[in-house]
Specification:
The complex is a heterodimer. By secondary structure, chain A is mainly alpha-helical. Chain A is 71% helix and 3% strand. Chain A has one domain. Chain A contains 13 helices and 4 strands. In chain A, the strands form 2 sheets. A two-stranded antiparallel ribbon of chain A has the order 1-2. Chain B contains 9 helices and 10 strands. In chain B, helix 3 packs across helix 4, helix 3 runs parallel beside helix 5 and helix 4 (123-136) packs across helix 5. In chain B, the strands form 2 sheets. Chain B has a 6-stranded mixed β-sheet with strand order 6-7-8-3-9-10, sandwiched between helices. Chain B has a 4-stranded antiparallel β-sheet with strand order 2-1-4-5, with helices on one face. Chain B folds into 2 domains: 1-81 and 167-248, 3-Layer(aba) Sandwich (Rossmann fold), CATH 3.40.50.300; 92-165, no CATH class. The chains are: A mainly alpha, B alpha/beta.
Chain lengths: 330, 248
């Protein structure tokens, strides 16, 4: 007999909702709605990444736009070189021209963001609280201004990707196929995070959030645990950034801006800090507000703000907390 | 002397004008309980923090198992086998009692970078954590959230965690604090058997416990150890009576 918790039921409902919405859009022949659901899926993934650092590790990063943007720009740069047949660089006598293969693009997006996160985390994690928030923000803003000032890849205007990149022989321009790719990746990433959460590593990471002194006293160095989690978190957000670039077939410095960091954080806060599917609900509500209220008034952010305030003040576990109850550690 | 477990030599720590630790030397032998007593503000907490590495000494040297650990941090010292408890319980409050102990077990195993090994199904981890809980009599509270424990139970859990670390020396910062008469008595009996596993250096206010447990007592006043001796010697020392015991 399956014995599901309320949270597991809720998670199932969230997954079903995304699937039903995309099926409905297909049935009604409204591909735009599939794209909208795909956007939710991708933004949710960015939130799942941040949630690993923020929710499990207590690292309130206000600079995850850096990794989202790196994922996007790696995609844009690799694809534009491949499409224009321009040399990217030569290494060991081999000329590298970029690629339009999503698998390689994802690999590079994830690796380069991991390097960036290791560097940013190494310095930022020496601080705590507000200082950590400000330093991560500062790093992301540095990259933001760099991307504006770098004319080779469009500067302020951003960079267009003329065709969507390739994934085996699937027609990625078909909205449903691209949704299927993004949705599968989101589920895979959530599965990965759930395994991490319940692992020995996750046990140490969540202890670091609660009481670093305790962790150090038993002989586990909090810095290493947190830095590792920060890097994995960045890699997930970068993968989302790569998909986002392919969704829009365009990348711009906006991906690096603090607005993006703020939005990713809103997904997490709204949905539920530290809850596996929290960012999916958060991103879903955000897009719902942006699309429907945004159509009615340009001040839709005001309503989002009121909702966020309500959730933060009265429901500390976010929407998942309200619907599924408090977190239980066995 | 290599048979000293802990050997502290000429330790100095000053905060501004205040000498919190003043040329302090102290040692710990196998199987003994060495208690440090002293009036409030004598520098007992500062001493404990220097031994476990939370604050660094200005001068002097700390040797543990023959190794110079003066410049090692808290984590490195814990890994060498220095197990400490806190004066004010310091636990992962959202975790269950069992999970707090499991953290110490996985630290000993060195498996904290195991990314996929689930702690829920890890029977070895659970079993050895349970073992420590049984020793302190908390096995029936294993699934309770640490935040829901009573003060006394939190103290017991601190001890269970430090047991799971399998330390080579115990460093106990006021283990009896707030335990109540019954709890103190039980804990005193328990600590008496614990010394066989590893020696204990403890800072304690509860004189009944100190006098019934300690093999040696050091009396700390204004950062200086004014004497070290047996229970009888300390009880009969005029200086100690004046500085500390004579208060009442």
């Amino acid at each position: 007999m399956l014995n599901l918790t309320r949270e597991q039921l809720l998670n199932g409902a969230v997954v079903s909702t995304l699937l039903v919405l995309s099926a409905l859009a297909l049935f009604l022949d409204e591909p735009f709605y599939i794209t909208l659901v795909t956007k939710v899926t991708i933004l949710a993934m960015a939130g799942v990444g941040l949630n690993l650092a923020l929710g499990l590790g207590g690292m309130v990063s206000f600079g995850h736009a850096a990794f989202f943007g790196i994922g996007g720009y790696v995609t844009g740069i690799l694809a534009s070189h491949a499409l224009n047949e321009e040399l990217l660089f030569t290494a060991f006598g081999f000329a590298v021209f970029g690629t339009t293969n999503m698998l390689f693009i994802w690999l590079f997006a994830v690796l380069i963001s991991a390097l960036a996160a290791a560097l940013i985390g190494y310095f930022s994690l020496r601080t705590q609280g507000v200082y950590f928030i400000m330093i991560t923000l500062a790093f992301a803003q540095m990259i933001y201004y760099f991307s504006i000032a770098w004319p080779a890849y469009g500067g302020e205007d951003g960079l267009s990707i003329y065709q969507r990149n390739q994934f085996f022989s699937i027609n990625t321009l078909d909205p449903l196929s691209f949704f299927a790719i993004c949705f599968s990746l989101l589920l895979a990433v959530i599965f990965l995070v759930s395994r991490l959460k319940n692992s020995h590593f996750g046990n140490a990471l969540q202890a670091a959030r609660q009481n670093e002194q305790r962790l150090a006293a038993v002989g586990i160095r909090p810095f290493g645990i947190k830095l590792t989690a920060f890097v994995i978190s960045a890699m997930i957000t970068a993968l989302a950034g790569a998909l986002f670039a392919d969704l829009n077939r365009f990348v711009s410095p906006g991906m690096f801006s603090w607005h993006t960091s703020g939005e990713i954080m809103i997904f997490v806060l709204l949905g539920g800090v530290g809850r596996l599917f929290g960012p999916v609900i958060g991103a879903g509500l955000f897009i719902l507000f942006e699309y429907y209220l945004g159509g009615v008034t340009e001040h839709w952010m005001l309503f989002l703000g009121v909702m966020l305030l309500t959730v933060v003040l009265f429901a500390r576990g976010g929407i998942v907390g309200v619907l599924a109850g408090e977190v239980k550690h066995d | 002397m290599t048979d000293k477990i802990l050997n502290i030599k000429n330790l100095v720590k000053t905060f501004g004008q205040l000498k919190a630790t003043d040329d302090l030397s102290l040692d710990l032998y196998p199987n003994e309980i060495h208690a440090v007593i002293g009036p409030n503000g004598a520098g007992k907490s500062t001493l404990i923090k220097q031994i476990c590495g939370e604050i660094s000494a200005d001068q002097g040297r700390i040797e543990f198992l023959g190794k110079d650990i003066t410049h090692l941090d808290v984590v490195a010292r814990a890994r060498l086998g220095l197990g400490r408890t806190f004066q004010i319980s310091s636990l992962a409050m959202e975790y269950s009692v069992l999970r707090n102990v499991m953290l110490a077990v996985q630290a000993v195993q060195g498996s904290s970078y195991s990314f996929f090994k689930s702690i829920g199904n890890d029977q070895v981890l659970r079993a050895s954590a349970m073992e420590s809980l049984k020793e302190v009599g908390l096995e029936n509270r294993a699934d309770v959230c640490a935040a829901k424990l009573s003060h006394g139970e939190r103290r017991q859990l601190e001890i269970a965690v430090v047991l799971a670390q399998q330390p080579k020396a115990f460093l106990l910062d006021e283990p009896m604090a707030g335990m109540g008469a019954e709890g103190s008595k039980k804990l005193t009996g328990f600590l008496d058997t614990l010394r066989l596993r590893a020696p204990i250096l403890m800072v304690e206010h509860d004189m009944d416990a100190v006098f019934s447990l300690a093999d040696r007592i050091s009396v700390l006043v204004y950062g200086k150890i004014i004497m070290t001796g047996s229970v009888a010697q300390v009880r009969n020392n005029a200086l100690v009576r004046e500085a500390y015991l004579g208060e009442d």
